[in-house]
Amino acid sequence: MLEKIPAPTPREELHVLVIDNQGLVHDVVASALHEVGIKNVSSAFNAFHAKRLCSAKQYDFVLLAFNVSHDKDGFHLFEELKHLNHINDTTTVIFLSAETSPELVNCIVELQPDDFWVKPLQRNKIESRLEYLIQVRLKLHKMLHCMHAGDYSTAMYYAQRQLKDPSLSEYHTRIKRLIGDCLLQLRDYETAEDYFRTLLQSMDHAWVHIGLTRSLLRQDELEEAQLLVDDLLQRPDTRFLTFDLLAQYFIEKEQFDIAYEQMKEASRLAPRNIERNKRLWDLARLNHDKAGQLSAVQNMAKFAKNSIHDSPQLTLNVIRSTIDLATSLGNAEGDKYLKRAEYELEELRQQKGMQNQLAEQIDVVKSRVLCLKDQKREAEKLMEGRTASTDGLSMEDSLDKMKAFHELGMREHCVSILDKLRKQIEGDTFTSQVVNEYLNQESIERTEIQFTTKELKQMAAVNYKENRLIPAYNNLQQALTLSPKDKQVALSLLKVITQMHLDGGLSEEQMKSAQRAAKLLCTEELSATQADKRDQYIARIGIEVDDTNAADSVGMVVAKV
């Protein structure tokens, strides 16, 4: 027996909130709402007023402008209202915007509003769209109620019945999309595949193509998925969604290097999503891309401004990533980032309450700065008496503490923190997959490699100058392990291997190292001088380089898996 479902709210009892900073928009929308029989209309001209109204009443419709106020845009307000449960699964949300750039549209689509209206608004179009959305609430009520409750099987039962009702033909496209969503939620990918294939015979909507691709990837039907992906990446309405889908697929397959490339593209096409930037940050760390790591966390801080995500921790994470990048660079370039980190740290420290709120974290960051400046005694004083405890610390706080201990040579403390962090990560979520892999990687590297990339470069230079080629080779191998995208390290390694070859030949492992370094240098942008040196070393060693970059072609990537 099917669950008794409450009746839908009659239109005359619906409550609507319009949030926009333009009085004309309120007048036009309110007039159209009254025309279609909705009398309970509230207006808010800024975010503060909107939140006050929502705290007093639950609204059925929320019309939300992108440029709602100078300090908080529509994305931030939407997230905050959702976080406070003022907007939930039963709320009909309509976004309003005069801007229609691809990046903005991608970001709005990702929020999954019920509709998107482009300004200037036209009264007759508003009335027709409102009538449509009201009818969706009334006529598809049972199916939507079941979906919101997670009862996807019952939702499909009602949907199939409604598809047989000719009076609902105007809503059949929406109903069909909801059926596809239900099949994917139920993980019935074989049925979903057949369903989307059938729809494609008569429909060309982006969601149909994405649904079929998702179904195929979930079943590892890669040959056909490859063909679909190649097509979808050419379509402006599916490109962003396809990159996002591929990123999640390769994460689940633990192909983190390929997932990173897809996530970068998705973030570029829809840059405002904080959670995606967080995933991008995690993937950048896992792939040793310290410049990418800094870029991702800078975007997080930029787009979190005045949102529920905004916090001093984000500023601290930007400083930490700046230091991470500085540890991998040469003196001149590294000093530039180090000075930036010091300046931003001092600005943070002077903010009201920070010296108490983040005292330990700031000291740890200071210690890392001092280590980079070769002032290890002063750094040791700051870390004196500190233990490997992670109590009360965020994961980022603990990771930074671990790095500080490692840079001071306190390996036992460093490994202890990593062990504690790994125990905190459980389940099969993105966090456990990517972050746990990162923690495992850090544990191996911090145990086996006692120095930073910068220190290893300096040691290699001294060893090479003294003609100690094997120690120089080992130093650079470790440096390239820590910074596998570092062109200067790869070039130096190739230089050392070339000299070793001229002095008496190479082992199989050394030849493989030369090939890896050469491949990196053939796929990265180099100056004319660097390219000339690379070619000379490759010619002298006599190695062949396969410079195919699998991430350049998603089709090739899918086939590879």
UniProtKB/TrEMBL annotation:
<feature type="coiled-coil region">
    <location>
        <begin position="331"/>
        <end position="358"/>
    </location>
</feature>
<dbReference type="InterPro" id="IPR011006">
    <property type="entry name" value="CheY-like_superfamily"/>
</dbReference>
<dbReference type="Pfam" id="PF00072">
    <property type="entry name" value="Response_reg"/>
</dbReference>
<dbReference type="InterPro" id="IPR001789">
    <property type="entry name" value="Sig_transdc_resp-reg_receiver"/>
</dbReference>
<dbReference type="InterPro" id="IPR052048">
    <property type="entry name" value="ST_Response_Regulator"/>
</dbReference>
<feature type="domain" description="Response regulatory">
    <location>
        <begin position="15"/>
        <end position="134"/>
    </location>
</feature>
<keyword id="KW-0175">Coiled coil</keyword>
<protein>
    <submittedName>
        <fullName>Chemotaxis protein CheY</fullName>
    </submittedName>
</protein>
<dbReference type="GO" id="GO:0000160">
    <property type="term" value="P:phosphorelay signal transduction system"/>
</dbReference>
<dbReference type="InterPro" id="IPR011990">
    <property type="entry name" value="TPR-like_helical_dom_sf"/>
</dbReference>
